[in-house]
Amino acid sequence: MEIEFQRVGKKYESGQEALSQVSFHLQQGEMAFLTGHSGAGKSTLMKLMMMIERQTSGQIIVDGVDLRTLSRRAIPQHRRRVGVVFQNHQLLFDRSVFHNVALPLQVSGADPQQIAKRVRAALDKVGLLDKEKYNPMALSGGEQQRVGIARAVVNKPQLLLADEPTGNLDPKLSAEIMNLFQEFNRVGVTVLVASHDLALVARMRHRVLTLSQGRMVSGGGFG
Ligand code: ADP
Ligand code: ADP
Q1: What is the ipTM of this complex?
Q2: Taking every annotated instance into account, which residue ranges of this chain make up the domain ABC transporter (predicted)?
């Protein structure tokens, strides 16, 4: 997926200006990091990409299409093309690993055989095929985060967004999670990872976009 922000602004109804004049271009198949202090606007930028929030100025162009022109029906379709990983992975502890990963497919109405095939493929990619019957509560923090990643990729998204995905993990596990994102990127998925772990980001040698007080202070522009 190719994404272009053109002078995007977001002012919340509270009056808080979370983003201002943000411009950048992520190429199809690119991987980049998004850094910035707490409150800089990282989550807001990702919410705009998922159309959970709408910009109040500027244009967001995805694969050549201005997101403001999407019909109400096209919005869920757009979201299915975006996989999302959160810091607090938001797993459900009342069901198995398998059924956690299956959730987005059940929402989109796939048949059970197809679901089983896709869930196992996603678990295989994150190295958790042998844990499908476990309750996620019985897994380590790093494993739980990998379940969250399997769930984010089970729909075969064209864009993978991760918001502080290693926030609660030690450096070794954090590096493993970043390597997983790189593997998805290697097969053509566009990846954007928000992180304030600057040491980790520097080691990964990808492009770094930096937000400060809602402005893109480095790594932006058009290209
Ligand atoms: P980050 O992810 O970099 O910590 P956020 O995008 O969460 O930054 O927040 C950017 C700014 O917007 C902050 O000042 C935050 O308080 C404000 N903000 C975030 N969400 C909302 C909201 N729903 N309503 C009002 N203000 C918000
Ligand atoms: P919506 O009901 O908002 O239209 P979708 O089913 O289109 O949501 O899914 C939006 C995105 O969120 C997809 O990338 C999907 O993989 C992901 N998703 C769906 N359900 C969950 C969930 N329970 N937890 C985390 N991500 C989910």
Answers
A1: 0.74
A2: 3-223
